[in-house]
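Task: sequence design from structure.
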C-alpha cells in the first residue's frame, strides 16, 4: 500500500469512528517483528503503550521498523512506516508526524501520552537523518 492510497482511504472517512476503523484495519497490515528482533529494537519513552522504533538507511532508501502493543498505535505506525519508506532524505529532514496526523484528520482524538511517544519518534528521525549529512 502506498501513502497516496492511505490518503485516499482517510479522505473518504466522514467521522472519527470511520477513521478509527481505518486505523484498526491498517494495524493488521503492520508486520510484527519476530521476538528476537523486537528484543533488539529501542523502546520509545513517553508513550502509555509499549512502542518500538528503529530507522535505518539501506540501499539508497530509508526504512523503519516500528511496533506497539496497542492496535490504534500500530495503525499509525503503519502509516508512518509507509510515509518514511517513500520519503527522500530531503523530505525527512523536515518530516512532521503532527502534520501527517493532521493531514489524515486523526490528530484530534489521540491522547497526550500517545502523542508524546510519536513526538519522540519524530526527534529520533530528525537526529538520524540530520546525522546522515
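Answer:
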Amino acid at each position: 500500500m502506498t501513502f497516496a492510497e492511505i490518503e485516499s482511504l482517510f479522505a473518504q472517512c466522514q467521522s472519527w469512528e470511520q477513521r478509527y476503523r481505518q486505523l484498526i484495519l491498517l494495524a493488521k497490515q503492520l508486520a510484527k517483528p519476530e521476538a528476537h528482533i523486537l528484543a533488539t529494537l529501542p523502546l520509545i519513552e513517553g508513550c502509555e503503550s509499549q512502542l518500538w522504533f528503529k530507522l535505518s538507511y539501506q540501499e539508497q532508501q530509508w526504512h523503519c521498523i516500528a511496533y506497539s502493543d496497542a492496535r490504534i498505535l500500530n495503525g499509525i505506525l503503519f502509516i508512518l512506516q509507509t510515509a518514511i519508506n517513500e520519503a527522500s532524505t530531503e523530505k525527512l529532514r523536515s518530516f512532521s508526524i503532527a502534520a501527517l496526523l493532521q493531514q489524515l484528520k486523526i490528530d484530534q482524538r489521540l491522547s497526550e501520552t500517545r502523542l508524546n511517544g510519536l513526538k519522540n519518534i519524530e526527534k529520533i528521525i530528525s537526529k538520524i537523518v540530520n546525522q546522515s549529512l
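Residues 112-131 form the longest helix (20 residues).
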